[in-house]
Specification:
By secondary structure, the chain is of the alpha/beta class. Among the domains are: 37 residues, no CATH class; 131 residues, no CATH class. It has two helices and 17 strands.
Length: 269
């Protein structure tokens, strides 16, 4: 009798242990699924740029010191004291700017408040007193110079919604190309018809909101290897010899006047 009871209890313990093991595995699996689903739910938030808040005429807007010097020189800023600010009323009706910077690490902070700007030309030149020996982003015959520092790191015209013409090309003195800008940020620039950014070190260019773009010149931009023109159906002139891939709305409607070198044209998806 004792043997029978002992056998019974042993069998019962085995069954209980097996049941608990199964329950533990189910619980662990469900927990893992929840963790995975939670991981899927947690995605990086898209950074949405807030629209520019237009100040009242008498309000001050902040600008970079080097930009302010130019505005004083051009007699746009009546206050000849360098204080890093200018009244909005003095710049809101300016529709044209021709800017030249000498040296590196300059800034056009404040240009976003030139809300009536239609024409913008920016040039960066290396000062003869520059201690940086790398005066070219692309040197002959070496090629791209990785540690080149441009005059302006990022030119952001995404708030200049009336802009029609933009020239931010680099410069050359025969030994190579010196890039004026490192990056170009565009936005809802639906009036922008002409972009000239030759000899620039830009690596990407988003033209998706530029529905009126007619003329694009990006020659000698050796860091830029691919370009999408899927939203630029009215583009008449394109000049670029270094691009490897160009996405176009229709392969049958490519403008024969485009200068694209050996680039491969692909149909937009």
């Amino acid at each position: 009798m004792k043997n029978i009871l002992r056998s019974f209890y042993n069998e019962l313990e085995i069954r209980v242990f097996s049941s608990l093991s199964v329950l533990f595995l189910i619980f662990f699996s469900l927990s893992g699924c929840k963790e995975k689903s939670r991981e899927k739910e947690i995605e990086p938030l898209e950074v949405i740029k807030e629209p520019l808040k237009i100040p009242v005429d008498s309000a001050f807007v902040f600008i970079s010191p080097e930009f302010e010097k130019l505005l004083i020189k051009y007699k746009i800023d009546p206050d000849k004291n360098l204080n890093g600010k200018i009244r909005y009323e003095h710049i809101k009706n300016i529709d044209s700017l021709d800017i030249a910077f000498y040296g590196i690490s300059k800034s056009l902070k404040g240009i976003e408040y030139f809300t009536d700007l239609k024409y913008l030309k920016v040039r960066g030149y290396y000062s003869t007193a520059s201690i940086n020996p790398n005066i070219y982003y692309y040197a002959f015959p070496i090629g791209v110079v990785d540690n080149f520092v441009p005059s302006i790191d990022t030119l952001d015209v995404s708030n200049n919604l009336k802009l029609e013409y933009l020239d931010c090309s680099g410069t050359s003195d025969g030994g190579g190309y010196a890039s004026t800008i490192g990056n170009l940020t565009l936005g809802l620039n639906v009036n922008l018809k002409i972009i000239i950014s030759n000899s620039s070190m830009i690596k990407s260019l988003d033209l998706s909101e530029l529905s009126a773009l007619e003329n694009l010149e990006i020659s000698s931009c050796y860091n830029l290897t691919s370009l999408s023109l899927c939203k630029n159906s009215v583009l008449v002139k394109l000049k670029s010899w270094q691009l490897k891939t160009i996405s176009v709305p229709s392969l049958k409607a490519v403008n024969p006047g485009w200068e694209t070198g050996a680039a491969t044209l692909v149909q937009c998806k």
